[in-house]
Amino acid sequence: MKDVFRVSFLFDFYGPLLTEKQQDLIKQYFLEDLSLAEIAEGAGVSRQAVHDLIKRAESALEEYERKLGLVATHLAVKDALKLTVSEIDSLAGGDGPESSAGGDGPEAYTFKIRRVSDRLKAILARYF
Questions:
Q1: CA atoms within 13 A on the CB side of 15
Q2: Are 79 and 127 in contact (CB under 8 A)?
């Protein structure tokens, strides 16, 4: 089964590193949802040849990610920022799951602000 999401994400980051032919095959198979037979017919090659070329292109994308880790870093930063935004939202409303940490007094807000600040510092130190 096609892992369209993963390959699409990898392609967004590393697509320009592939050959033009590999880029075309990935686009046709994963993004345009053409079958191997349809791609093979259009390219004038066998279905097996298309399959092998797509698998090589996928392997290249996975290898770039293994070496560079840009997608993993992007997703980790995104998750950390989402969590930080959630913390900020809880400061604004005080009705989220975090509001039980010491009530809504000044000490609770100071604690929450420090926690948000620490999380942002950790993101900056780790990724930038």
A1: 14
A2: no
Q: 85 and 34 in contact (C-beta within 8 Å)? A: no
* Cα 37 from Cα 45, distance rounded (Å): 9
Non-local CB neighbours of 121 within 8 Å, separated by 6+ positions: none
- Express each pLDDT in 18-58 by its tens digit: 999 999 999 999 999 999 999 999 999 999 999 999 999 99
Distances (CA, A) of 28 to 56, 82, 110: 15, 33, 53
- Can you give the three-state secondary structure of 54-96, one letter per residue? HHHHHHHHHHHHHHHCHHHHHHHHHHHHHHHHHHHHHHHHCCC
What is the mean pLDDT of the segment spanning 99-124? 76
